[in-house]
Amino acid sequence: VRSLYSTIKAKNEIIKKMCARLGVECIDTEQCGITGMKEVDFVDHLHPSVNGAKKIARYNTARFMAWFNQN
């Protein structure tokens, strides 16, 4: 599991760099509050539960709304 997480983190950094280079917003859902692998947020330590999905949806919606309000 540790090596898979490292691979995902490495890809996440590449995506962030690509977004910065292209000048586009990068919404990093790792910042939404479900990275602690809490059982209430995941059904199998990989896929979000209903609770985890709600956190992702709220975070993404807030980021989208912030972007739309700026532009």
Find the count of extended strands (DSSP E, 2+ residues): 0
Strand content: under 5%
Q: Rough shape?
A: flat
**Low-pLDDT windows of residues:** none
What structural category do the secondary elements indicate? mainly alpha
Helical content stands at 55-70%
Beginning-to-end CA distance, first to last residue: 40 Å
- Biggest sheet statistics: none
User: What is the averaged pLDDT score?
Assistant: 86
Helical region count? 2
Using the CA coordinates, give the radius of gyration. 14 Å
Order of helices and strands: HH
Features:
mainly alpha, single chain, 59% helix, 71 residues
Strand and helix layout:
Elements: H1 2-22, H2 50-70
Description of the structure:
With about 70 residues, the protein is mainly α. The chain is about 60% helix and about 0% strand. The chain has helices spanning about 1-20, 50-70. The longest helix has 21 residues, at about 1-20.
Provide a compact summary of the structure.
It is built from 2 helices and no strands. By secondary structure, the protein is mostly helical.
